[in-house]
Amino acid sequence: MEETVATQIRMHETGGPEVMKVETVDVGAPGPGQVLLRQSHCGVNFIDTYHRTGLYPVDLPSGIGLEGLGVVEARGDGVTEFEEGDRVFYATGPIGGYADERLIPAEKLVRVPENLADDQIGGHMLRALTAQYLLRRLYKVQPGEQVLFHAGAGGLGQIAIQWLKHIGAEVITTVGSDEKAEVAKKLGADHVINYSTEDFVARVKEITNGVGVPVVYDGVGKTTWEGSLDCLKGRGMMVSFGNASGSVESFSPAILSAKGSLFLTRPTLMGYCGTRPELIESATEVFEVIGTGAVTIEKATVYPLTDAVQAHKDLEARKIVGSTVLMP
């Protein structure tokens, strides 16, 4: 096999977006259990900023990015599930997804059904798989339940709102602007709260007649943590799955008993799709809701692969509505 030269975004230190550099590397031939993937879409997710800043440490120097969509170019020994030319995605790493070509373990890949287009999958699957495990496995939302899902206009929030409505839940969501409120309303959210101008705890209590909700999905972190706990009913479930506004500060577990014998979990996608059977099961359900139209995937905001720095700046400045993709 001829030498494969790839363009990758790499970092040699942690810090701001500027630590990411465009580099040309020889990726080599696929080893046992690996494939060489030519990528058309590289997903950009908030977890990438945690790797870049060092909040979630990685060994340096390192690539960046956990999600991609592309075509299998070559297979290593022992790879029997995929053929050259197969269209596949991955969304649970390994890190190094900001690249036009890369090597990746075949066990991390899932074949994309022919009825789904690239722009329905590329850059969206990490969020879609996250929605699946949050809503269908971690806490299995039931028809008629009132649910609070923060950041409804984001890429994950848009998928979650539609999926929750498909289930039959009553959806309460928060957003940071009137523009984002319109996005959430069009997706079907029953109650949209602009937390920059409204007290979201007071509104949730008003909506639920003072009872609170059985589950809060909070990917915002520091700025919504205390309020999210106050939105829960007795023995409710606090699902803290992200730190978009910063990490939650240390707290005493006694706060959970004081606020009503609450449950708290800090899950990850890797924790729920860490085995191949779990990954395939989750992806199959995601393909189903997208394929039937129960969840409509809006086109992502697209940047050239070499503009990863600007993509991160815009993501952290909350300028992007929906998902973000780098395209080689």
From TrEMBL:
CDD domains cross-referenced by the UniProt entry: QOR2
Record organism: Caenispirillum salinarum AK4
GO cellular component: cytosol
Domain of life: Bacteria
Protein name: Quinone oxidoreductase
Keyword match NADP: yes
Enoyl reductase (ER) domain location: 15-326
Gene3D superfamilies (alphabetical): Medium-chain alcohol dehydrogenases, catalytic domain, NAD(P)-binding Rossmann-like Domain
InterPro entries to which the protein is assigned, alphabetical: ADH-like_C, ADH-like_N, ER, GroES-like_sf, NAD(P)-bd_dom_sf, QOR-like, Quin_OxRdtase/zeta-crystal_CS
Keywords: NADP, Oxidoreductase
Upper lineage: Bacteria, Pseudomonadati, Pseudomonadota, Alphaproteobacteria, Rhodospirillales
Molecular function GO terms recorded: mRNA 3'-UTR AU-rich region binding; NADPH binding; quinone reductase (NADPH) activity; zinc ion binding
